[in-house]
Amino acid sequence: MAHEVEQFSDGTAAFVSARESAWHNLGTVTTSAMTAEEAMRLAALDSWNVRLVGLHATEMTGEGTTLLDVPNHRASVRTHPKTGRPETLGVVGPDYTPMQNEEHAEFLNHLVDESGAHFETAGSLKGGRQVFLTMKLPQTMTIGQGDAVDLYIAAFNSHDGSTAFRIVVTPVRVVCANTLRAALRNTRSSYTVRHTSGARARVAQARQALGLTFRYAEEFEKAAQRMLDVEMSTPDLRKIVDELWPLEGSDSARKKTNRDTRWASIRNLFEQADTQAGIRGTAWAGYNAITEYANHVAPARGADADAKAAVRAERVITGSTDDVMERAFRLLTV
What we know:
Shape: globular
Order of helices and strands: EEHEEEHEEEEEEHHHHHHH
Oligomer: single chain
Distance between the termini: 42 Å
Number of strands: 11
Helix content: 25-40%
Strand content: 25-35%
Number of helices: 9
Structural class: alpha+beta
Largest sheet: 8 strands, mixed
């Protein structure tokens, strides 16, 4: 499959969303908000028992086979959620300490405490090597007269040593389910914990660090309101797009064609799309046109529409479009 949501031989997938996904329409959809336990079970994330196992190398010569220890590395292994058999997820260094999926969910529960937040999505990517959970916070931001933006906390973890445990705060625009991550100067919207022996203790620090979440929401709302108050023309937006995706004179004809296709899509979103109807002709509409393109329109590889939708969903889940959106926010905010 072109996408990386974990698929099982029984036809199920390691993904679940509450009622309707915040970002896409993939996987199992529940009829109500989820608890941590339900998110773990429905996304096949429970009872993995991620553990470290010693590694050995095999040398084969004319004199026979020699088994060699690999002292400074371990294999990260899980119990497969469907077969029950051990499965290697990756090779990690001597300081790596696994964080179980249940700990991941428990941390989010403690982080939001009694705020009224609920689990929104959970899932596994790349054959279990990466997992994610998101929670929807109860507060909603309103830009202008009625452009609603919800706030989410998303937590990402890897079991192969490729990334740290990471928590991000991300606004999602209701009208088009756009993730609007932004780099604000004086607020914290993310927190990272390395997989070391002290990781569990340091996770507790995240709550204090992300206590700035509400300040982040306030600053984001103010910045968005300022963008809504600024008129933007199509030529103005073209300058921003050209700065985000610069083209050199020596670039190939294919890149130039891609540039023209990209601009046509963004221009159409800005000038014609229903998702911009209430904010058309503003810098806020320009920013949303760029983020909607990055998350939902930009080309995605896949054999069919479902596979392409999954690729676009993973862009949001993994944050692969964050750089473009954050640069766009910096260029457009006033």
